[in-house]
Amino acid sequence: MTRTQGGGRPLAGLLAVLAAQAALLVAVGLLITHPPAGWWDPREGALVGWLAEHRNPAATAVSSFASAVAFTPAVVTVTAVAAGLLLLGRRWRPAVLLAGAVAVQAALFVLVAHVVDRPRPEVVRLDGALPTSGFPSGHVGAATALYGGLGLLALHGVRGRWRVPLCALAWAVPVLVAFARLYRGMHHPTDVLAGAANGAAALWAVRRALPARQERPRWLPLDGPVAVVFNPVVVDGALLDRLCALLAVPGGGEPLRLPGAADDSGRAAAARALAAGARTVVACGGDGTVTACAEAVAGTGATLVVVPCGTGNLLARNLGLPAGPEAALAAALSGPVRRIDLIRAEGDGFPERAAAAMVGMGLDAAVMADTGRALKRRLGWPAYLVGAARHLGDRRIALTVTVDDGPPVRRRVGTAVVGNVGALQGGVRLLPGAAPDDGVLDLVLVQPHGLRGWCAALFALVTGVRRSGPDAPLEHFRGRRIVLAADRPCPRECDGDPVPGGRVLCLTVRPGVLLVRAPGLPAPAAAREAVA
Question: Which residues cross the membrane (predicted)?
Answer without folding.
Answer: 12-32, 65-88, 95-116, 136-155, 162-180
